[in-house]
Amino acid sequence: MAKILFVDDEESIRTLCSEELKEEGYEVITTGKCKDVLELIISARPSAVSQACHGAQGRESLMKSISMGLRKETKGPLGLNQGL
Fold first, then answer.
1. 38 with 59: CB under 8 angstroms?
2. Mean pLDDT in the chain?
């Protein structure tokens, strides 16, 4: 079973998306704190990360995890940069 780390500062979005992903058979880890992303990637080793963090903390955790080789940068469905 694939494990997904879902990061969003809005609890309602985290809850809704987590429930949907669990129904599809995924193991889901959620957090609303961008500062926790790097630690969770290292400890939980998710297969994918969905990160909706804005501002300096979101960019910093994304770039740090990419530079450490924990994620790779990809393009999302709208051509936006995302990390996996």
1. no
2. 76
